[in-house]
Amino acid sequence: METLKIGMISFAHGHAFSYFNSLRKLPEVKIVGIADEVQSRVEDIVDRYEVPYYADYRELLKQDVDAVVICSENVRHASLVIEAANAKKHVLCEKPLGTTMEEMERMIAACKQNGVQLMTAFPCRYLAAVVRAKEAIDRGDIGDIVAIKGTNHGGNPGGWFIDKSLSGGGALLDHTVHVMDLMNWFLKSKVKEVYAYAATLFREELEVEDAGMLHVKFENGVFAVLDTSWSRPKSFPTWGDVTMEIVGTQGVITVDGFAQKNDLFSNAAGKGQYTFWGDDMDAFMIRDFVKALLHGEQVPVTGEDGLKAAEVALAAYESVKLGQPVAM
């Protein structure tokens, strides 16, 4: 069996731990190294699973590595992806792909020039409810789509996410891209206009916004609204949600991405909790990344997909600044 040698660069984003576990369970994958300048973030898994550790990601890129998974702070995505591409490594990059259009275009170009693939980490495409909705839409079950209402609520993630110099933005950037990618995937139509609202409503001391609302028009006539707020308090049973109400000419599909859950009431936790029992979206995404590279196929979620979703968030910031709709 052919083996894909994968390295991981930065565990700044917590999704890295889930991706690591997903990679570890695939017999066709060998994790050849983890690079993180903050050793304490990864020392437990490095020791437990005897994975080579590199304080400098450049040393990892010099190794015999086929691909890397990058889960750094948002503002570092571009430089890390471009260096990995120049080292001839395929890349899976955490969302949002980048913090400016120019850097995302450079990331995509660098990968193409070096003959490697760039995949954006959008695991929500693998949620069971989302997959079934896509199948129903493609079959024409609800006719032509007229409008979509979406939410990606969450709790304030804290840490570097609320440091604009590292994140590039707040809730608008962090929570627009997942559901925006799903809308793009369903509609296959370009966004032509964005009108947005953003504010700091839940923690006044923040330097980034924690509330956002986007109104989007597509070239095919569909309009959509998306709530991207970090509005969930610490007492909420889970970090957030991914929902959509998709209105068609012949019916409506309601998507609740994390509805496959049990309600757990625990004195130890001190609050009610949702425990998800559905399929592991991260595992499915990682499996498809590995499968595409081993079989020489195109990755299922491209760098261009990442750019299209992040482009809407960046246009939203421009709309907030101008106080009016922005044409794309």
Structural overview:
The chain is an alpha/beta fold and 328 residues long. It has two domains: 4-116, Rossmann fold (3-Layer(aba) Sandwich), CATH 3.40.50.720; 124-280 and 310-327, Dihydrodipicolinate Reductase, domain 2. The protein contains ten helices and 15 strands. Strands 12-11-7-10-9-8-15 form a seven-stranded mixed β-sheet. A six-stranded parallel β-sheet has the order 3-2-1-4-5-6, sandwiched between helices. Strands 13-14 form a two-stranded antiparallel sheet. A hairpin with a 4-residue loop joins strand 9 and strand 10. Helix 1 (15-24) packs across helix 9. The longest helix has 20 residues, at 303-322. The chain is globular, with a radius of gyration of 20 Å. The chain starts with a strand and ends with a strand. The relative contact order is 0.16. This is Gfo/Idh/MocA family oxidoreductase. Residues 18-121 form the Gfo/Idh/MocA-like oxidoreductase N-terminal domain. Residues 131-253 form the GFO/IDH/MocA-like oxidoreductase domain.
